[in-house]
Amino acid sequence: MIVRGLQDAEKGERRVVSEGWESTRLLLKGDNMGFSFHITTIYEGAELHLHYQNHLESVYCISGEGEVETVADGRIYLVGPGTIYILDQHDKHILRARKEMKMACVFNPPLHGKEVHNAEGAYELEAEVVANDA
Hints:
Layout: H1 6-10, E1 15-18, E2 21-27, E3 36-42, E4 47-51, E5 56-70, E6 75-79, E7 84-87, E8 92-108
Antiparallel strand pairs: 1-2, 2-3, 3-8, 4-8, 5-6, 5-7, 5-8
């Protein structure tokens, strides 16, 4: 069994901070579950242009307010507490936070730990690994 506390993970190397967001990676590739699980904060006013070419992602909004736009058709979906959106087609999208958003995110394949978005808004398949005991 794996047991981790969010507050403890936020104090260690499982917390990754980047422009417009931060993410605490509670479950990673090294945990051998086949997916990764993160609690991610999107800062108020952030506009993130994302395109997960190597990963599928599902995102559940715990708190906050914003929107996600699918670039292919320009459709805008409101995101608030209780909303889930699933990027099941490697969708190029824009995520905007009107109020700081706390999100629960699942990635397949799982992240290694230290990934941040590349120039295309994607995570690379290989990245710096976070220790399993953290």
